[in-house]
Amino acid sequence: MVHRDATLVSMEGLSCPACGEEELLSGVPHADIIEVSCEPCGQKWHRDPHALPNCDRCDGNDMEGAVKAVVEKSRGSQLSIVATQVVYLCRDCDETILASYRIGRSPLMPAELPTT
Ligand SMILES: [Zn+2]
Ligand SMILES: [Zn+2]
Q1: In this structure, which ligand is nearest to the CA of 18?
Q2: Are 52 and 34 in contact (CB under 8 A)?
């Protein structure tokens, strides 16, 4: 048996950026941050409990996590997703992006795709 030193994370408004799960999240504290993992889909991300990012455009703090794809150009012109990262979007400034993200929950594509 592996003992997992996980504590249940109950942070207001915390939900899995990948699938939207709000209940089955566990967190393991590391120094200043908490590594949160989602039981249903396996997404892991870090959360700094002391510093939720503020929006760099409107300076609001009504942020929502989303999964963004990290793409690399592979042979030919095919782009492949090599990793995902969790980013925070502003519910005001990024409202349209978030609205479509919530429907499909497929990773957001970067605004700038690699060209070389
Ligand atoms: Zn999830
Ligand atoms: Zn904003």
Answers
A1: 1
A2: no
Confirm if 59 and 78 have CB atoms less than 8 A apart.
no
Looking at all shown ligands, the one closest to residue 93's CA atom is 2
In which residue ranges of the chain is CATH 2.20.25 found? 1-51
Q: How far apart are CA 42 and CA 21, in angstroms?
A: 11
Q: What does the pLDDT look like over 19-31, one tens digit per residue?
A: 999 999 998 888 8
Q: 15 alpha carbon to ligand 1 midpoint, in Å? A: 8
- Distance from the alpha carbon of residue 34 to the mean position of ligand 2, in angstroms: 24
> What are the angstrom distances between the C-alpha of 33 and each of 21, 36, 49, 103?
20, 9, 6, 29
pTM (two decimals) = 0.69
* Top CATH class, 1-51: mainly beta
> How close is the Cα of 50 to the center of ligand 2, in Å?
19
